Amino acid sequence: MILAPTRELANQIAQNLRNLSRHIHNVKVLTLCGGVPFKPQVVSLQHNAHIVVATPGRVLKHIKEKNINLENINTFVLDEADKMLDMGFYDDIMEIIENLPKNRQTMLFSATYEKNIETFASNILKNPIYKEISDEKEILINQKFYEVTPSEKTALIPALISHNQAKTTLIFCNMKITCEKLADDLYDLGLDILTLHSDLEQKQRDETMVLFSNKSYPILIATDVASRGLHIDDVDLVINYDLSLDEKIHTHRIGRTARAGKGGLAISLFTENEIDKFEIIKEKFNNIKIENPKDIKDDISFEINSNFRTVFINGGKKQKLRKGDILGALISEAGLKSDDIGKIDVMDFCSYVAVKSDKISNIFSTSKSMRIKGKYYIIIEK
């Protein structure tokens, strides 16, 4: 069993496990998260999963209602343990542990190891082995800070993106209302924008992550719900529209770039009222550069757009669809080539396919449905 603090992180862990185990026969990975219907999870639990990835609140509810059998759990993993404690899950986790077999392996992962984590670890781990992994990403991430006035912030965003020729940009704001206001302002400037924050329903949040990770939208504006644990490959640029509330959150934000050992760029904007926050962050990092906003040159030859658009299909794993089935249908039914098709995400009841923008019309030229494995499915451009 693996516990994660958020639904997004739990879903990503589960997807990675499915990818890693796809060559092992009949490995069942089950996610148990809030924000989605409860009864289908009860039904799935009756079929005995090999690996359960869950958020604390939802798995505890299943335990209390006796929907889940924990007697065969031999490995228990706590991912982003510091975040779970920050979110107030301590009591839930301890209650879950009380229901687990005593003879098990427990692993705890945390981005920080402060006193509360040390105490927590000592309470749940027996004769543990501690491993500290140095964060090489700090070296790989080029950090630049710009002191600006509040009125300059939004106007600088397109220039920062084009100046650095970023194909994918992740922008962090401290509040949901700021996310939406910035998204509206950038949309008015002709940019394609996605937003991610806690006011969105789970289905909307999942879809947003798919559309950004498959490169259908060049810009994602998010609150810190997205700054922990989410693995999005090839984020070229992270912009802190608002400085984070502390240096730990700043570290997690900028860690979205420089994934998989690649270099990355993180730009932070701060106003005169945020000098104190800047000084706190500056104390932690020795590679911070303060730049002059006047040096930002808007490269008008660089187009801030995406080479892909996404096709939604109203069928997924529960309809026995696989990536190969969808790929084959797009080639045979829509006349696409394999090079025209990007990332394919197959969910339980729907699928998403990234298709090159100049080929998207081929799919919708004759019909709003597509035949896959002898059955017709509704298709919608996202």
The oligomeric state of the chains shown is single chain
Rg over C-alpha atoms, rounded to the nearest angstrom: 22 Å
* Count of separate structural domains: 3
The stretches of 5 or more residues where confidence is low (pLDDT under 50) are none
For the biggest sheet, the summary is: 7 strands, parallel
CATH homologous superfamily descriptor of the largest domain: P-loop containing nucleotide triphosphate hydrolases
Major β-sheet strand ordering: 8-9-7-10-11-6-12
The count of β-strands is 17
CATH fold type of the largest domain? Rossmann fold
Q: What's the architecture of the largest domain, going by CATH?
A: 3-Layer(aba) Sandwich
Name the helicity range. Answer: 25-40%
- The secondary-structure class comes to alpha/beta
End-to-end separation: 34 Å
Mean pLDDT: 90
- Beta strand %: 15-25%
Task: Give a description of the structure.
- With about 375 residues, the chain is an alpha/beta fold.
- It folds into 3 domains: about 1-125, Rossmann fold (3-Layer(aba) Sandwich); about 135-295, P-loop containing nucleotide triphosphate hydrolases (Rossmann fold), CATH 3.40.50.300; about 310-380, Alpha-Beta Plaits (2-Layer Sandwich), CATH 3.30.70.
- It contains 14 helices and 17 strands.
- It has helices spanning about 5-20, 40-45, 55-65, 80-85, 90-100, 115-125, 135-140, 155-165, 175-190, 200-215, 245-255, 275-285, 325-335, 360-365; strands at about 1-5, 30, 50-55, 75-80, 105-110, 140-145, 170, 195, 220, 235-240, 265-270, 290, 310-315, 340-345, 350-355, 370, 375-380.
- Strands 8-9-7-10-11-6-12 form a 7-stranded parallel β-sheet, sandwiched between helices. A 5-stranded parallel β-sheet has the order 2-3-1-4-5, with helices on both faces. A 5-stranded antiparallel β-sheet has the order 14-15-13-17-16.
- Helix 11 links the parallel strand 10 and strand 11 (about 265-270).
- Helix 3 packs across helix 5.
- The longest helix is centred in the N-terminal third of the chain and has 14 residues, at about 5-20.
- The model has no long low-confidence stretch (mean pLDDT about 90).
